[in-house]
Design goal:
CATH class of the largest domain: Alpha Beta
Protein name: Beta-lactamase
CATH topology of the largest domain: Beta-lactamase
Number of strands: 10
Strand order of the largest sheet: 3-2-1-10-9-8-7
Order of helices and strands: HEEEEHHHHHHEHEHHEEEEHH
Number of helices: 12
Shape: globular
Domain Beta-lactamase-related: 26-351
Mean pLDDT: 94
CATH superfamily of the largest domain: DD-peptidase/beta-lactamase superfamily
Organism: Chitinophaga terrae
Strand content: 5-15%
Oligomer: single chain
Pfam family, one: Beta-lactamase
Structural class: alpha+beta
InterPro entries: AmpC-like, Beta-lactam-related, Beta-lactam/transpept-like, Beta-lactam_class-A_AS
CATH architecture of the largest domain: 3-Layer(aba) Sandwich
Largest sheet: 7 strands, antiparallel
Length: 369
């Protein structure tokens, strides 16, 4: 969706090539940035647990000529769903919740806290697993997506409003419909079970064990920009500061660096080293699709080749994480987005390098620097 007007013009300047260079990667990234007028971009690549390449390209702030680094913070948009799913699975691993527990109603994990009663029988049948799989039966990411309505409401107020005004359209478990709202509810489940604010629990239970210290939820306006965070640039009339990002916490509100996300991926990828933060059974659930959509599991898209990934998109933001079956993990972050084949080209940007056995990846583990 496109809303508002462009607050900050894109001042596209020369790309800043970092000192280290891997031409097969750098050339692909810079060509992509030129084609789609991307002011700044960061990438990170791991191979069997080692960080083999990470870089920032272009500008984090085109007005003040601040370069992007691999540690610059970007909005990651819907890649946040993978983070939330990992947090839910961490609670399940600790036997603090069951994925097949219902969510709403007298027997639900959130009880009757939200909205007006009585709840419909379908609403009372929605489970945590179905929210993770986007099969709860409604609240789709379309023109009626509640997460982009009523920006002055708190998350709790919005949940009550949505339950009262947007009934489910399908029986739970039957139809896949991508739902930002469902992940907002998952954030409140994490708070209920953990007894902590969503962000605090995720930082303590998921991020800290991975050595991630700078990842956090983002702000809404340019004035709310966090230290080290990039500026976002809209294209085609988009306003990158129109939405309530902080309310999106569990479905689209995190900001992270490329190296942050690389540290997280190597602890969720199922490869031998370093040890994963989830059990093998939890990782199996994490990457198993639903009956309604075999291509989407619990917070990640999956395929038959045992690769998984998630992309994110907001005005001024494009992101993607990819776990490949060949032992590579890829992170791509941009401070703009646009139309056309932009996201297809972003998805394919690093595959030539990782599929070529002759690519001269550094032998040193850059995580240890």
């Amino acid at each position: 969706m496109k809303h508002g007007i462009l607050l900050i013009p894109i001042l596209f300047v020369r790309l800043l090539l970092p000192a280290q260079s891997l031409p097969v990667v750098d050339t692909a990234v810079m060509n992509f940035m030129r084609t789609y007028k991307v002011p700044g971009m960061a990438i990170a690549i791991t191979h069997h647990g080692k960080l083999v390449y990470s870089k920032g390209y272009g500008l984090a702030d085109s007005v003040n000529q601040v370069p992007v680094t691999a540690n610059s913070l970007f909005r990651i948009a819907s890649v946040s769903k993978s983070v939330t799913a990992a947090a839910i699975l961490k609670l399940a691993k600790a036997n603090r919740l069951n994925l097949d527990t219902t969510v709403f109603g007298p027997k639900g994990i959130l009880g009757v806290r939200y909205g007006k009663q009585p709840y419909s029988s379908d609403l009372q049948a929605v489970t945590i697993r179905q929210l993770l799989q986007h099969t709860a039966g409604g609240w789709q990411n379309n023109g009626d997506d509640p997460m982009f309505l009523h920006p002055s409401m708190s998350a709790d107020e919005l949940i009550s409003w949505t339950l009262d005004h947007q009934p489910l359209k399908n029986p739970p478990g039957k139809v896949f419909a991508y739902s930002n709202f469902g992940y907002c509810v998952l954030g409140r489940i994490i708070e209920k079970v953990s007894g902590q604010p969503y962000e605090d629990f995720v930082k303590a239970a998921i991020l800290a064990p991975c050595g991630i210290r700078t990842m956090q939820t983002g702000g809404n306006t340019l004035a709310d920009k966090r230290p080290g965070e990039v500026v976002y640039y809209g294209q085609n009339g988009e306003n990158p500061y129109i939405y309530n990002i902080s309310r999106m916490d569990a479905h689209g509100g995190w900001i992270a660096s490329a190296t942050d996300l690389a540290k997280l991926l190597v602890r969720l990828d199922g490869f031998p080293q370093p040890p994963d933060i989830l059990s093998p059974a939890s990782l199996q659930a994490f990457t198993t699709g639903s009956a309604a959509n075999s291509g989407y599991a619990l917070g990640v898209a999956v395929n038959m080749n045992r690769s998984w990934w998630h992309a994110g998109s907001l005005p001024g933001t494009a992101s993607e994480i990819i776990r490949t079956q060949k032992g590579f993990n890829l992170v791509l972050l941009c401070n703009t987005r646009t139309d056309g084949p932009f996201f297809n080209d972003l998805d394919g940007l690093l595959w030539k390098a990782v599929n070529d056995p002759a690519t001269p990846w550094p032998q040193e583990d850059l995580f240890t620097r």
